[in-house]
Amino acid sequence: MEAQVIPFHSEYDVSTEQARKLLALQREILEKVALNVEYREILDALCKAAEQIVPNALASIMTYDEVGTSLTVLAAPSVPAEAIAQLNGLVPGERAGSCGTAVYHNEAQYVANTRNDLRWSDLQNFVDNFSIRACWSSPIKIEKNKAIGSFALSSFEERIPSAFYKQLLETCAHIVGILLLRQEKEQSLLRLVHYDPLTGLINRTLFKEKLGVAIESASIQKQQLAVLVLDLDGFKDVNDWQGYDIGDKVLQQVVKNIREILGHRHTFSRLASDEFVVLAGNSGEPLSVQLLIGTILALFKKKLTIEQHEFTLSTSIGVSLFPEDGTTASDLLRNADTAMHAAKKAGRACARFYNEGLTNSVKYKMDLITDMRSALARGDFVLYYQPQYCQKTNKLVGAEALVRWQHPEKGLIPPNDFIPIAEESGFIQELGLWVFAEACRQCKAWWDSGIPEFSLAVNLSVKQLDADNIEKFREILCALEFPIHHLELEVTESLIMHHESLAELHKLDALGIRIAMDDFGTGHSSLAQLKHLPISKLKIDRSFIKDLSEDENDRIIAKTIIAMGHSLGLIVIAEGVETVEQQAFLAQEGCDLIQGYLLSRPLTVEQFSDLFKVV
Ligand code: C2E
Ligand code: CA
Ligand code: CA
Question: How far apart are CA 90 and CA 99, in angstroms?
Fold first, then answer.
C-alpha cells in the first residue's frame, strides 16, 4: 500500500503529539497489510485503533451492499450485534443519520447532538435504544466523486470533534478506501486466474485443485468419485459457418443448460474451447453417474435457438472413476479424456467409461432406464407368485408377488437388474403402484373363483412410502373390496434410517395392513428399534439360510432371529430355503413359515392356479 497517499491536510491544526498518534495508527495498519492479514481483520484493527485514540467512542465502517442501494456494516468490533442489525439496510439520504447523510452528500458529517439534529430525525429509535448522543462520519471514496461507504465514530455523550478528531476520521476513511480497492483488485485478479471469462465457469487450474481436494476427502471417507469429460460434437462447424460471436453464444447457452441440471451438487468447469468437465459430487456410484449421463445426453436432444438460428448439437462423454481409474487429478482427467475419445470413435453423442466393462453394463442399464416407462404402458411387466408354507402343517398360507420384466428383445429381466434403477430414477413410484394394484387384483380374482384365501405379500421400496402413495393404495383396496387383513407389505431395514417413512408406516398399520421386515439381519436395526415399529413378521435374509449347514455363525444368527422375533410376538419366516437340511434346522428352531426353491420357485399366474386344480 502506498503510505504517502494518506493525506495530512494543513486545514487541520494538529499538534506533534497528535500527528505521532496518527502515524502510529497508519503504521500499525500498514504492517498488517504487508503481512497479508485478512482484510476484515485489518478493518477491525483500524476501528480499535481509532477507539484507542478517541476515548468513549465506538468506530464503525459501513459500505454499500451488493445491490448498491443501502448500506451494511462491514466492521464495528465494539458495536453490539443488535445495533448492527438495526443499522444494516440504511438507505443514504438527508436524514439518514451521520453515515447515511455523509454517503448521500459525499461529505463528512459531524453531528454533536443526535437528539435535536435534523440529520438524525429518522433514526430517533436507534438513538433511544442505544444511547448514541453524538456521531461523526466521513465518507469512504474509491473514486473522487463517489462515496461507497462511511467511517464513523459514535459517542454516548454530546460532543463536537476537535480538528485532530476530524483529521483522524478522514485518515481512517481514506485507509478503508485503499483497503477496499486493493481487496477488489485481488478478487478480480483471482477471477482472471481461475475463471473462464466467457462462461463464468472455473478453469482447468482451479478444477484440478478442487478435484485434488475431493480425492483426498473421498479416500478418507471411502467414497467413489466420477469425472466426466464432455466434448461437444460438431462445434467447429458452428464457428466456421456462423462465426465466433454466435459460437460464443452457443457455448454460453449450452453451459447454462448443463448448469441447470447439475445444480450445486457437482463441480463444472471449462477445460478448453468446447471441452468441459464435471466432477460428480459425492455420487460417484455408477448408477448415479448413469442417470447423470442420461440427463446430459437427453438435454442435447433439444434444439438450441440463438439469434433466430437453430442448432442441434450433441456431446461425447468420457468417464473415469476414483479410485478404480486413477488416484490423482491428472490421471483421472487423462483417463476420462481417453474415454471421451472412445465415445467420439463410437459414433459421438454417447458416453464411454474408461473401464470398458462398465461401458457395456452402463449401456445395458441406460437402455433399461429409457425403456422402462414405455415398458409399463406396453404391459411388459409381469408378476410371479412364490408360495409361502406353514412349517408345521406344510399348508400354503401365503404368496409373495415378485415382478419381472418380459422384455421383447432382452428376454426375462430379473428385478435385481431394474428395481435399483427404478428406485434411483423415481420410476419405482409408478411401477410399485402397478405391482400393488395388479397383485391385489389377481389375488382377489383367485379367491373369488374359489381358491382358498391366503396372505399376499407385496414388496415395497422405501421411496414408495409417502402419503400420496398410501392414499392410492387405500383407494385400490377399496375399489377391489380387498380383504385388508390378507395384505402384507415387505419393507427392508433401511427404512428405519428414514425417519419420515416411519410416520407413513404407522399410517399403513392404521389401515390394517400388516408389515413384514424383509431381508432381516442385513441392516442395522436393533431389537430396541424393532419394538417401536408396527411390524408383525420378520423375514430371515436368504444369505443366512444359504450356509446353514456349513456355517456355525449363520446357525447362531438364524436361531437368534427366530427366538428374538418370537419374544417380540412376531411371526418368523425363512426365505431361500433350498435343502431339506435347511428346512430341518428351521423346523427344529421353531421357524413359523418357509419360502424357497425347495418347496416352490416363484410361479407364473397359470402355474400358481394349477396348484389348486383338483385332479
Ligand atoms: P426379495 O424380496 O428378497 O425376494 C426374494 C428373492 O429370492 C426373489 O428373487 C426370489 O425369486 C428369490 N428366491 C426365492 N426362493 C429362493 C431360493 O430358494 N433360492 C434362491 N437362490 N433364491 C430364491 P427375485 O424375484 O429375483 O427378486 C429379487 C428382489 O427384487 C427381491 O428380493 C426384492 O427386493 C426385489 N423385488 C422383486 N419384486 C419387487 C417389487 O414388486 N417391488 C419392489 N420394490 N421390489 C421387488
Ligand atoms: Ca421380499
Ligand atoms: Ca428378502
Answer: 9
| Residues 174 and 214 reside in one and the same domain | no
402 CA → ligand 1 middle, Å = 6
Q: Average pLDDT of 242-248?
A: 90
Distance 490 CA to ligand 1 centre (A): 11
Query: Does residue 97 line the site of ligand 1, with CB under 6 A?
Result: no
Phi/psi class of residue 106: alpha, beta or left (left: φ > 0; alpha: ψ in -120 to 50)? left
Residues 166, 249: one domain? no
pLDDT of residue 558: 93
Task: Pick the last residue of a domain from 320, 354, 388.
Answer: 354
Q: Buried b vs exposed e over 103-122: b needs ≥16 C-beta within 10 Å?
A: bbeeebbbbbebeebebbeb
End-to-end alpha-carbon separation of the chain, Å? 102
Say whether both 379 and 472 belong to one domain: yes
198 located within any domain: no
Query: Whole-number mean pLDDT of the chain?
Result: 90
In terms of domains, do 266 and 140 share one?
no
| Phi, psi (deg, nearest 5) at residue 109 | -125, 125
Which atom from ligand 1 is nearest to the alpha carbon of 595? 15
pLDDT score recorded for residue 477: 97
Q: Do residues 252 and 276 make contact, with C-beta atoms less than 8 angstroms apart? A: no
What mean pLDDT is predicted for residues 429-449? 97
Q: Ligand 1 in contact with 423 (CB < 6 A)?
A: no
Pairwise CA distance, residues 611 & 28, whole Å = 93
Q: What is the CATH number of the domain that holds 113?
A: 3.30.450.40
Give pLDDT tens digits for 524-554: 776 677 888 899 999 999 999 999 988 899 9
C-beta 98 within 6 A of ligand 1 = no
Give the residue, by CA position, lying nearest to ligand 1 atom 23.
Answer: 576
Q: Which is it for the CA torsion 531, 535, 536, 542, positive or negative?
A: negative
Q: Using a 6 Å cutoff on CB, does residue 602 contact ligand 1?
A: yes
What is the CATH number for 304?
Answer: 3.30.70.270
The reply to whether omega before 323 is within 30° of 0 (cis) is yes
Query: Is pLDDT at 599 greater than 90 in this prediction?
Result: yes
Residue 339: which domain range?
204-354
pLDDT, greater one: 592 or 366:
592
The alpha-carbon radius of gyration of the chain (Å, integer) is 36
For residues 568-592, average pLDDT: 96
Neighbour tally for 59: CB within 10 Å: 27
Which of 459, 522, 544, 599 is the pocket-test mutation for ligand 1 (most atoms within 8 Å of CB)?
459
Reply yes or no on whether the pLDDT at 9 is more than 50: no
pLDDT tens, 282-304? 555 666 788 888 889 999 988 88
Q: What is the mean pLDDT of residues 397-411?
A: 95
Confidence band of 13 (pLDDT split at 50, 70, 90): low
- Give the integer Cα–Cα distance in Å for 319 and 288: 13
In this structure, is residue 130 part of a structural domain?
yes
554, 585 contact by CB (below 8 A): no
**Nearest partner of 80 among 156, 175, 188, 176, judged by Cα:** 156
pLDDT at residue 115 tops 60: yes
Tell me how far apart the alpha carbons of residues 255 and 225 are, in angstroms, rounded to a whole number. 22
> Residues 389-408: what's their mean pLDDT?
96
Residues 174, 311: one domain?
Answer: no
Q: Which of the listed residues 192, 221, 239 is the one where a domain comes to its end?
A: 192
